[in-house]
Amino acid sequence: MNGLIQFLTKIQTFNLLTITKVELKSPIKEDGNKPAYSLAHETHYYDSFTYKSEIRVLKDMALIDLLSLTDTSLKREYEQLKKLKERFKLIWTNFHQYYGELKAKYPSNFIFSIQLDYLFIVNNLQSDYKDIYIGDEFVESLHDTLKIRDKFLSELVSEVDEILNPRETFEEWMVKQENQPEQVEDATAKLPPKIPYNPDAGRPKFNRQYIDDFLQLIRTYFSEEHFNQLGALIKAEEQPANQMIFNGNSNKLADAFKQLYEANLIVGCNKAELEKWILKNFLYSNGDKVNEYSEGWLSAIISSDTKVCKSPILEVRMKDKVPFLVPTVRNKKNSKY
User: Given the DSSP bridges, would you call strands 121-123 and 13-15 parallel, antiparallel or unpaired?
Assistant: First the structure.
């Protein structure tokens, strides 16, 4: 089980570096004599391009180890992996609570406030934390490395879940409908039954009365091509050829969908299914690069009660028990979005 151990150790260990002002990509405006924490070596934030590949390989090795287990042992490991996923959801909730979209500097106790040291292993954490500068470079790097770890943990959990609870594909369902084979006792009879195919299960349904208003409010956040694809997806459930890019702070789009869901303007799915739908269909760009959403990150926004979006795109308000969409005033510092 060495592969599984290496993977789980890697995604739960944060190796902080302490660097000087000169080494920072974004120079410190104040507290110039203080050292600063860095995690850029574990992300794509600047110059590190191997960390993500390393985590991916370790995830594949972990899966190979799990495939060698008996059903009972595999189920036991699966439950432990789900507990770890819950810890990632908690760190995302804590992160969003203290994260600021426009902050350049964070409190010196930021790491302790989000409980990173409690939930995971944090190496090189200084006891005199007040002497360490924490700026937006570190927080964005932490955000990126958490996404990488969360992404591959979620993939591993999904792959194990598929082994324990195999899904019936649309093609398999069609063949079964055409042939209607008789029940035959054979070697496959001991396998767990496949979950039947349901094309509408978990698919968000938008209240048509509000679709045009919603689309107009978010139009400026998409290119014309992706905006047209978004309209087709929401109105006619036409799947886009590729993921659509939301041009803005990552939590704005998730917050908008969450508000629609909680006002019953999105139905036909639960919050977890809405998160998977966003994960499948959207990327985001904050101006310098295109990023993927992560399952735990979305869950911390949509499934928790924490208010994480400081400058939302819209608000859903009620008048005489009837909802209506209201655009919000954008922060001038973030007006490009």
Answer: parallel
Ranking 197-211, 247-261, 266-280 by mean pLDDT, the lowest is 197-211
Q: Provide the pLDDT for residue 333.
A: 42
The closest of 196, 170, 315, 181 to 255, measured between CA atoms, is 315
Residue (of 116, 117, 84, 124) closest to 97 by Cα position: 116
Biggest CA-to-CA distance, the chain: 77
H/E segment holding residue 111? helix 110-113
Tens of pLDDT, residues 284-322: 987 777 888 888 888 888 888 766 677 889 898 888 888
Element (H, E) at 17: strand 17-19
Within 10 Å of residue 51's Cβ, how many Cβ atoms?
19
The structure tokens listed for 297 are 């990150």
Give the Cβ contact number of residue 47 at 10 Å.
Answer: 9
Average of per-residue pLDDT across 159-188: 69
229-272 confidence digits (pLDDT tens): 999 999 988 999 899 999 988 889 999 999 999 999 999 889 98
Contact 129, 109 (CB under 8 A): yes
Q: Please report, to the nearest 10 degrees, the dihedral formed by the alpha carbons of residues 266, 267, 272, 277 taken in order.
A: -60
C-alpha angle with apex 24: 336 to 146, nearest 5 degrees? 70
Contact 168, 196 (CB under 8 A): yes
Listed in sequence order, the DSSP H helices in 165-223 are 170-179, 208-218
CA distance 215 to 224: 12
* Strand extents, DSSP E, 149-281: 205-206, 244-247, 266-267
Burial label, 40 (beta-carbon count in 10 A; 0-12, 13-18, 19+)? buried
**Which pLDDT does position 42 carry in this prediction?**
83
